[in-house]
Amino acid sequence: MQHIPGLPLGVGTWGLGLGTPAQAESERAALTYALDHGITTIDTAEMYGDGAAETLVGATIADRSRNELFLISKFYPWHATPALMRKALVASLRRLRTDYLDLYLLHWPGDTPLADTMAGLAALQDEGLIRAYGVSNFNVEDLKAARAVPGGDQLVANEVLYNVQSRGIEYDLQPYQDVAGIDLIGYSPFGSGNGRAITIPNAVQALAAAKGVSAHQLLLAWTMRSGRVLSIPKAASLAHMRANLAAARLTLTPADLAVIDAAWPAPTHPVPLESI
Known about the structure:
Layout: E1 11-12, H1 21-36, E2 41-43, H2 52-61, E3 70-75, H3 82-96, E4 103-106, H4 114-127, E5 133-136, H5 140-147, E6 157-161, H6 173-180, E7 183-187, H7 202-211, H8 215-223, E8 229-231, H9 238-248, H10 254-263
Parallel strand pairs: 1-2, 2-3, 3-4, 4-5, 5-6, 6-7, 7-8
Helix pairs in contact: 1-2, 1-9, 2-3, 3-4, 8-9
Protein name: Aldo keto reductase
Domain NADP-dependent oxidoreductase: 8-264
InterPro entries: AKR (IPR020471), NAD(P)_OxRdtase_dom_sf (IPR036812), NADP_OxRdtase_dom (IPR023210)
C-alpha cells in the first residue's frame, strides 16, 4: 500500500449500528479490540444505515488520538457535485466526531461530470476537510476517465469487490492501479451477507484444517497475500475480529495458493467489474 498506512487489514462497517443496544455494544467492542491490536483503518460510508455506521464509529473513537487513525468514508453519486459533497462530508464528519477524513471516496460512478467531482474533492482537500481522495467501484475505463480531468491525477485509491470468487480485477484493474500508484481496497472478502455466500470446496476446507485455521480465515489471508491490497472485512463480535487479525498473520505457500487457484482460477481475460 502506498497511501494507506498500517496492516493490509482494515475494518469494514457495512451493516453496523443497525441492531439492538447489545449488538451495538458488541460491535463497538470489536472495533475497540481491532484498534488496540494494530489496525488503524476504518472504512465507512454515509450510505451505511443512513449514517448509523458512522455514528457508531464516532462513538467508538471519541476518546482516541485522531492521528493514530485512518478514517475512510464514501459519498453517494448523487452527492458528487462540489456543493452537495461538501454538505455530505460535513454530516459525515459530525457523525464521526472528527474534523477531517484521511480518505474520501465517490461510492460508485454516477451522472455528475467527473470534472465537477474531482474539482469538489480537490477543494475539500485544500480546505483541510480531507487529506486525500479516491473512488470506489471504478473499472479501468472509469479510472482512466477520472484521471484525465483536472484533479484526477491526485486519486490515491479505488475500493472494489475482491475475493476468491470475484478476482477479475487481477487481469487488468490491479495491474493498472499498480502502475498508476492507486491503492487497491478490497471489500467483501467472504462475499456478501452472512459471510457464507462463497461455497467452499472440500479441498479448501481440508487445507484450512491442515493449517489450523477456519476456511474464512484462509480466504481472508488470500486477499492480503500480495501486500498490495487492503482488505476490509466487517466484524461485529470480538471472536470474529480476533479471527480476522489472526488471518493477517497467516502465510500461504505456493502449494497453498495452488489449491485455491484450482478451486477459483485466476482470470485469463477481461472480466466486467463486479460489485455488491
